[in-house]
Amino acid sequence: MATVLGSVRAFFAPSAFAIDRENAGDVLARERLLDRAMGEGRFRKSSEKLRRGRVPAEGLALVARDGDGHVIGTVRLWNVEAGVDASGNPVPALLLGPLAVDPNYEGTGIGSALMRAAITEAAQRGHGAVLLVGDAPYYERFGFFAGKAAHLVMPGPFERHRFLALELKEGWLEGAAGMLVASGSRLGRGELPKAA
Predict the structure, then answer these.
(1) What domains can be seen in the chain, in order of their start residue?
(2) Listed residue (65, 145, 163, 64) closest to 112, CA to CA
């Protein structure tokens, strides 16, 4: 694999995929993919409370495209404050999600490629940490662990053992405690959730 965005490629029969930045033309395809992969329940998750009415972090809305350019995977990261540090200052971080792959392409490495691309891009943009709610056995291979989020909470119900964090800068979350709060840019009035 080469670098992120447009040149990350993985081959599987019968075609290839590429990771790219999401664009305005991807919005409908992304939403349909999320409906198929996650269902209506996705709107009731605690993570959704932090995303609702916001735009993803700058440059951190990514898609996987098949050989014909169709969206077959998606991941987005969102600006949040991960509680406060020992001095009471907000701790900027990112919330990852949702990550989804078209069910017809599950098991082909697209989810892993999207994760690696998102983490690499977030680090290159200078972010300090990424949090998510997900299955630890899947996300631990990317460096996410519950211990790093032990003193943080989500706004609403969440399963503590599924609340995971990855520090992109060592010690970034040390001493951080409290509730995650959305801090990203808001959607404009009447604006649809679009590409970042």
Answers:
(1) 9-182 (3.40.630.30)
(2) 64
CA 52/CA 87 separation, integer angstroms: 29
Q: What are 167's two structure tokens?
A: 């520090």
Whether the pTM exceeds 0.85: the reply is: yes
Give DSSP secondary structure letters for the chain.
--SSSS--EEEETTEEEEEEE--GGGHHHHHHHHHHHH-GGGGGSHHHHHHTTB-PPTT-EEEEEETTS-EEEEEEEEEEEEEE-TTS-EEEEEEE---EE-GGGTTSSHHHHHHHHHHHHHHHTT--EEEEES-HHHHGGGT-BGGGGTTEE-SS---GGGEEEEESSTTTTTT-EEEEEE-SPBPPTT------
Q: For residue 127, which of 88, 181, 81, 75 has the smallest C-alpha distance? A: 81
The per-residue pLDDT for range 135-180, each reduced to its tens digit, is 999 999 999 999 999 999 999 899 999 999 999 999 999 999 999 9
Give the residue from 59, 60, 57, 74 showing the smallest Cα distance to 17. Answer: 74
Alpha carbon 83 to chain centroid, angstroms: 19
